[in-house]
Amino acid sequence: MTQDPISVRALSPAEAQACIPALAAILVDCVDGGASVSFMAPLAEAKARAFWQGVAEGVAAGDRILFAATDDRSGEMLGTVQVILRQPENQPHRADVAKMLVLRKARRHGLGARLMRAAEDGAREAGKTLLVLDTVSGTDAARLYERLGWIRVGEVPGYALWPDGRPCPTTFYYRSLA
Question: Positive or negative, the Cα torsion across 120, 94, 98, 83?
Fold first, then answer.
C-alpha cells in the first residue's frame, strides 16, 4: 500500500506569509488558464503577491483560514482554498469559501474535492454552520461543488468577467454544516 503523497492542511500565519510566492504562482497559473477568479489577464506576479499578502494578513488576524495542498515528495504547492470567517455581526454563523485554486497540471486527481472537504471541516471547527460560494456557471468547479452536495441557489448573467474581458455568468451555492 502506498501512502498518499499529497497533504492538505491549514497554514499558520507564518506559513501563509512564507508561501506567498507559491500561492502567487498558483493564482497566475489559474488566470493564465482562463479562470475567472477576480483578476484580469495578464496577471502580474507582483499583483498576485500583493493579493496573497492581504490574505496572509487576514490569516494572522484570525479573519480567514488558508488551506494548501502540497506534494510531499517535491514540496510543491498544488492548490489552495480559503474560508473567510469574518462576516457582518448579523451573520456570525456563516463563512465564505473563496479562491479554490488548483494548478492546471494537478487537476483531475481529486485535489479540488480534498481542498473543499478541508474547507468544510475547518469552517465546522470554527463554529460555522453555513457556507456560501460563487463560481462561473457551467465550469468544472461548478460541477465539482454540485458533486460534493453544494446547493445551487441561482445564476446571475454577466456577473463577472473572464480574464480576457468577456462577461460570464456566476452561480451561487450554499452548504449547511449543521
Answer: negative
Find the mean pLDDT for residues 115-139.
98
Q: How far apart are CA 24 and CA 5, in angstroms?
A: 22
Beta partners for residue 60, in sequence order: none
Angle between helices 20-32 and 45-61 in degrees, nearest 10 = 130
pTM for the model? 0.96
- Which structural domains are found in the chain, ordered by start? 6-176 (3.40.630.30)
Q: Are 65 and 81 in contact (CB under 8 A)?
A: no
Secondary structure class of 32 (helix, strand, coil): helix
Over residues 126-144, mean pLDDT: 98
Q: Helix H segments across 35-110?
A: 45-61
Q: Where are the alpha helices (DSSP H) in 93-133?
A: 111-125
